Amino acid sequence: MLTDDTFFASIAELSAQIRARKLSPVELTEGYLARLEKYGQKLGAVAHVMREPALRDARAAEREIRGGRYRGALHGIPFGVKDLLATREAPTTWGATPYKDQKFDADATVVRRLKDAGAILVAKLAMVELAGGMGYNEASAAWTGAGRTPWNPAYWSGGSSSGPGAATAAALVQFSIGSETSGSILTPSAFCGVTGLRPTYGMVSRHGAMALCWTLDKLGPMCRSAADCGYVLNAIAGRDPLDPTSRDSGFRYPSAARRASKPLRVAVLKDSYEKTQEAVRDNFLASLEVLKKIEPRVQIEKNVALPEFPYGAVVGTIVDAEGASAFRELIESGRVKELASPSGRVGGYAASLVTAVDYLHAMRLRAPMRRAWAEMFKKYDVLVAPSRTTVANPADKPFDQGWPPAPAASPIGASNAVGVPAISVPNGFGLMGLPTGIQFVAPAWGESLLVDLAARYQQATDWHKRRPTLS
Amino acid sequence: MPITEADVKKIAELAHMEIADEELRALTPQMAAIVEYVEQLNELDTSSVEPATGGLTPEGERTPASREDAARPSLGQKLALEEAPDPSHGHFRVPKVL
Asked: Is residue B51 part of a domain?
């Protein structure tokens, strides 16, 4: 009988046991399936449990490993994906009632790559309908109901990768894949206390993923540690002929390459922590102290302002225009009425009002924005800020009736607009026993630095090892 | 000037559209946000920014638009001629045009 220690174990720990044939992938898969079936619905974290295909794949993995063919760190490791990734053997609902019966006859590239690495797909995980593309103001904006953080199920798991956040935090899967257009990996990672990595735009193929905004969408790992994110990213990154925006970045994990021994230059985003919730601020400041311990020569510069651009307006205009285009048929057919969120039911109509001229104007601003960010990253290696300004919102109230707004700056919209990577790492707890996080943002293709830095932060802290009590 | 519920109501009337109160409450802030975005964007001059001609990359403006120059299997004569109305000796036969 496997215990929680196994389900919460890291990829490195599990794979060592699997490789040594001390742990059976079938038994491990059975264990995660049982947890998905027991807790998945309570947390609003699951769209479909894939029991039969998962057990078949686990048996195949076990046979292969017994036969001496070990594929690598992910062989026999059970995982789940946000339900916007196409899968051949389960419906792909995009979290939305109008697509509840949607089926695809091929797996998304990311799913295929993980299966090729020997990982076992056990579930399609819940998400905010259409990744929030039509707008939403409540946790219940999904056909699966409100996503709940396992730390306190009266509170939201965050969105739009709500299921990956909650399922990973509760160890219903070993790891998961989420997606981010503007905050959808970092937010649930913060609210659920997991480690989520949003890669550089173009690093991971989006073939088979629901398109919300093709110039902003990114897929990335959500795990219980930075090291696990490294293993997963290693399997999914790289050029895919089926996604012309994808590129080979040279990311490898584990990597023998060490960072040059120059002092780490850290920029603290101006106004990002002073006016957040108290615990968010205190935990953030404590995290900076940890950085000083793990990087004795670190140079921390506070009050660093982002290059001045109307990031919110740029991202908002692009999300509206590309989202309305991606879901044009749904909007024009009137089936948006079937969405769970009242604001989502009309959001597509408002978004359709963005003119081509305004969209192109916003797109054109991205070139100078990217250049200005590249200049900024000549002075700093990473930018840091709290992952979110508050802990998770109440799950059963509209967001605008939740926590009082914290008037602090966030780099989430801006860093998505320029396409650079970020990682959110748990750094403590705040109100109602809910987790808080710190985000590290790096220049384009800086994932190695992010994983390495976050992993060293986690060697010096144990926030990522805390486990929620499930009932 | 921000868009108000009265503005949205008036637009709906002009377009002969019925609009429920719940929809009005949801639509107004969304339309107001778009107008606000556009006002902010219009304050910036992009005339000196080269229009993007390639894809978007995080550190530059262009992605290579050409594919690898490698031979790939073609359709093949049999398949190409399968749907032809009047094939002859491995060719398409077409009506005389001159």
From this structure: no
Pick the most confident of A133-142, A366-375, B53-62.
Answer: A133-142
In a domain, B71, yes or no: no
What residue type is assigned to position A236 of the chain? I
User: B15 in a domain, yes or no?
Assistant: yes
* Separation of first and last alpha carbons in chain A: 19
Same domain, residue pair A288 and A149: no
Number of domains in chain A: 2
pTM: 0.91
* Same domain assignment for residues A269 and A145: no
Please tell me the predicted confidence (pLDDT) of residue B9: 92
Q: What residue of A is the nearest CA neighbor of B56? A: A215
Query: What average pLDDT does the segment A122-148 reach?
Result: 97
- Measured from the Cβ of residue A89, the count of other Cβ atoms closer than 10 Å reads 17
Domain residue limits at A437: 265-305+377-449
Q: Which of A24, A157, A160, A287 is catalytic?
A: A160
Residue B30 counted as domain residue: yes
State yes or no: is A160 an active-site residue. yes
| Mean pLDDT, rounded, for A152-164 | 98
Look at the alpha carbons of A422, A428, A431, A434 in this order and tell me if their dihedral is positive or negative: positive
Instruction: For residue A127, give Cα distances in angstroms to A89, A289, A430, B31.
Output: 19, 35, 24, 25
Q: Answer yes or no: A38 catalytic.
A: no
Structural element, H or E, at residue B81: helix B77-82
Residue in chain B nearest A320 by alpha carbon: B34
Contact B31 A135 (CB under 8 A): no
Answer yes or no: A82 catalytic: yes
Domain residue limits at B30: 5-43
ipTM for the predicted complex: 0.71
Confidence at residue B45, expressed as pLDDT on a 0 to 100 scale: 86
| A202 and A269 assigned to the same domain | no
Where is the domain boundary, A189, A216, A236?
A236
Residues composing chain A = 471
Report if residue A331 sits inside a domain. no
Query: Do A161 and A272 have their domain in common?
Result: no
DSSP 8-state secondary structure symbol assigned to residue A242: T
- Strand positions, DSSP E, A102-194: 120-125, 175-180
Per residue in A217-240, pLDDT (tens digit) is: 999 999 999 999 999 999 999 999
